[in-house]
Specification:
Two copies of one chain form a homodimer. By secondary structure, the first copy, chain A, is of the alpha+beta class. The first copy, chain A, has three domains: 271 residues, Bira Bifunctional Protein, Domain 2 (BirA Bifunctional Protein, domain 2); 103 residues, Anticodon-binding domain (Rossmann fold, 3-Layer(aba) Sandwich); 79 residues, Translation Initiation Factor IF3. Helices cover 33% and strands 27% of the residues of chain A. The first copy, chain A, contains 15 helices and 25 strands. In chain A, the strands form six sheets. An eleven-stranded mixed beta sheet of chain A has the order 3-7-8-14-11-10-9-24-25-23-22, sandwiched between helices. Chain A has a five-stranded mixed beta sheet with strand order 18-15-19-20-21, sandwiched between helices. A three-stranded antiparallel beta sheet of chain A has the order 4-6-5. In chain A, strand 12 and strand 13 form a beta hairpin. In chain A, helix 2 crosses helix 6. The longest helix of chain A is centred in the C-terminal third of the chain and has 22 residues. Chain A is globular. The interface between A and B is large, with 63 and 63 residues.
């Protein structure tokens, strides 16, 4: 029973996690590097996943009154400079457009020509350009709130890139809202964090901790940054979405002013919140295994693959007809407002076929041969179980039970991830234990360490910086549901003010 | 009966069409200019329209086997240079990224820093960068066809811009396919043109002519460019979508090679096809009137606005409850796979409210007052009829008939546009009549002229150029269904080879 399984991905997760990650992406055909430094090509199997993420999240945004819009890709340099902390935070990673045409040089090659009077920055985020519109749209409290989202590409010139996790160009949504009162903006910041958390847990089957960033980890220009943090299978943390309360900082920078109901002029209170194709990286590292990608059904690029088994030419018609009928029946079922997505793979490539779909992470694999058809049954494999563990199910039962089956897989993935996080989270109060927890157990595999530590923290930036320098560990967040702290800071011994989550992070 | 109507838009279409167009956009709140030269802000009412266009078209693409993907925003200069005609066509309008960060200058301001070794062009179209991926993806005829689409932003640095029609940044889709044979690629080029034509007619209610561009109007690098052309209400033509057969030009430039089934190496045959936010400009100019925007129901940002009429405070609860119930009933109906989209506008701003929705082009307006409720009826106005022409309809009947009503409006808009085009299209054979047809009837309004002329053309680029220089008239296309021509060229008198559609154009 316990004999060693063959695995489809090399190296194993346990042996070289970063390389395993790249190999899972390659084997599943989600995406690949492009010839443009740090930019990725999202291939159809990966983009379908992103489409499902967009659709699910967009519905949730709209249910809270948010509407989509679109703002320019380019930001005039002068706009970025309006908020001092903001520009400081992004200046080092901006792609800058300086010319608007190409000209033949003396050696016949093309060179940039038509210099711009004011350089344009390719948006790294859009607070300043959207703030300029908001300033025009708002004059009275009756114009508020403004609740806007945009789905867009952004560019941050990263020096070290990794597909989905950190790329120079990535796809994201950025929400921007303006409110008449501080309270309303704070409430919206929290509401959108909850949307992210619910989406991550319900759609991506990725359990998250909702928390607040420390001052040093805040979005440049924000008063308060809330975040969701998830644990990957190497026990490192991934920040999967952030929601910022911007106070009046950007409203002052952009001139978003309104007359309140007492006819006095005030600056609006704004928020912004974003999540990106990084979620795909999080999904991969939460669920995938040594056989490749594992897709949660609610966002899966497809749900079911049908693999007809045709050993003799004279069986072809019968098997294909049965397969196509089955596909038609499955597609008539709905799973969370999408028709069940069915792929038919009739290639004659032997066992490689099933393994390809395992590597691609499709939730359900179905083999259909003449003997199955004889008994009106199908032979079903599930991606949340061992590759070889398959069972024969009467076809009617399979069709009528497909949405329950998908739900069960979705739930199993979530539960497994939650169990993993809980098994790798500790509460610590002693500095020695804290240091030991984050020390690699095997010098050859520095990425493997304890996991998440919940521990008291003094609240001082200097202490936080020391932890980072000494252990490469950061405060991921102060959980929103954390209790008041009355013990001593786990690292410096000063009175503890917060119970923080410490971890190594992406 | 024929007394002069008040209109909501000034100037009238007949008095100043270009300014009328800008005013329709402003009054309907679709979009506005941005502080970035030539770039637009698409506001929520406009973006909802674009979302519906994307959804409708995307479904049609997918039904033909196309899948979405995403490729980098940036194109290395060297890639663009690979296809000589292509780079020639786009060099004059490229935004060029030359630096990857910002640095404080001696006067404290920010200046571009970190010069790139090779400048990057912000994609004006993606043949070359996508071709690079295709070259990696294809090695055998078994890997073909590749059928890819991407929804993306592109930048073409235009000197004279107009919202939706010609902007420096616009949103679009670009399809790219690679095939093993010339025949298959030609067939795909035609198939996607048909998708565009069907979409324009069925969704946008915009009748189009399917045709072929002359050599001088081809996409840079294409062997053949097919297009759909529509007539705007100023009788000018708008090119609303193009589908290009690229032969092997780009496959050679990008190295897309494959082994055919005889184990010989060949270059693939490629196509590309695109349509953009320009479609919104076409929609506006096809249907809108002197009261503002008119939205075809199948893509409308919303279908129905409910306007409760509350004259006394004690009526509020009853009227609002009735209104909300009605909204709930309407939203349970589906119109082309979307739930009927209902807005409730309970603002107490008198007659301005109804006019606002007329200007925004919503297909159906419903007023609900206590007297209507007494007889369980609603007071309904349709955007395809006069603003003042409204009728009382029993509420049950209105709800159960809503999708028929929307369909009727959709059909009426299409028929009206088709009638207009037919009334403003002539067949001409004499040069004198041809010149007169395109001469403005009123020197003060040079944009008003005849319309479309179908006429014989010799096929010579020099003749085509002369027509353009003399009359500012271009050959929009050679209609795909045009009969063989045996008369003399309408302009130069040489033997006519084609029956072409001539028009002034956007």
């Amino acid at each position: 029973m316990a004999k060693k399984q063959q695995t489809a991905i090399a190296p194993l997760r346990a042996d070289d996690y970063p390389e395993w990650y790249q190999q899972v992406i390659k084997a599943s055909d989600l995406a690949e590097k492009s010839p443009v430094r740090g930019c990725m090509v999202i291939k159809p199997w990966g983009y379908a996943l992103w489409e499902n993420i967009m659709r699910g999240m967009d519905d949730m945004f709209k249910a809270t009154g948010v509407r989509n819009a679109y703002f320019p890709l380019f930001i005039p340099l002068g706009f970025l400079e309006k908020e001092a902390e903001h520009v400081e935070g992004f200046a080092k990673e901006c792609a800058v457009v300086t010319h608007h045409r190409l000209e033949k040089s003396s050696d016949g090659g093309l060179v940039p020509a038509g210099p711009l009077t004011e350089p344009l920055v390719v948006r790294p985020t859009s607070e300043t350009i959207i703030g300029d519109s908001f300033a025009k749209w708002v004059s009275s409290y009756r114009d508020l709130p403004i609740l806007i989202n945009q789905w867009a590409n952004v560019v941050r010139w990263e020096m070290r890139t990794r597909i989905f996790l950190r790329t120079s160009e990535f796809l994201w949504q950025e929400g921007h809202t303006a409110h008449a009162t501080r309270e309303e903006a704070v409430e919206r910041t929290q509401m959108m964090l909850d949307v992210y958390a619910d989406f991550a847990e319900d759609f991506l089957a990725m359990p998250v901790i909702r928390g607040r960033k420390t001052a040093s980890e805040r979005f440049p220009g924000a008063v308060d940054t809330l975040c969701i943090e998830a644990m990957m299978q190497d026990r490192k943390a991934l920040q999967a979405g952030t929601s910022h309360f911007l106070g009046q900082n950007f409203a002052i920078a952009s001139g978003i002013r309104f007359q309140n109901d007492q006819e006095q002029e005030e600056h609006a209170w704004t928020t912004s919140w974003g999540s990106s194709t990084r979620l795909i990286g999080g999904l991969i590292m939460t669920h995938s295994d040594d056989n490749g990608l594992v897709l949660p059904p609610r966002v899966a690029s497809a749900h079911v693959v049908l693999m007809p088994i045709i050993r003799r030419a004279e069986e072809r018609d019968r098997v294909m007809t049965y397969t196509e009928n089955l596909a038609a029946h499955l597609r008539r079922q709905y799973y969370y407002r999408r028709p069940v997505q069915v792929e038919i793979d009739a290639r004659d490539i032997g066992g490689a076929r099933g393994w390809e779909w395992i590597k691609k992470g499709i939730p359900v694999r179905v083999e259909i041969g003449p003997k199955d058809i004889d008994k009106d049954a199908v032979f079903v494999g599930r991606r949340d179980r061992e590759a070889r563990e398959r069972e024969s199910i009467p076809t009617d039962e399979f069709v009528s039970g497909i949405t329950d089956l998908l739900d069960e897989i979705q739930h199993n993935l979530y539960q497994r991830a939650l169990d993993f996080r809980e098994a790798n989270t500790v509460s610590l109060e002693a500095r020695e234990a804290f240091c030991r927890y984050f020390t690699p157990r095997n010098a050859a595999k520095p990425e493997i360490h304890g996991g998440f530590a919940q521990a008291p923290w003094c609240g001082e930036a200097a202490c936080e910086a020391q932890v980072k320098e000494d252990l490469n560990v950061t405060i991921r967040c102060i959980p929103l549901d954390a209790s008041q702290e009355d013990r001593h800071c786990v690292y410096c011994g000063q009175p503890g003010r917060y119970r923080a989550v410490f971890a190594k992070a992406y």
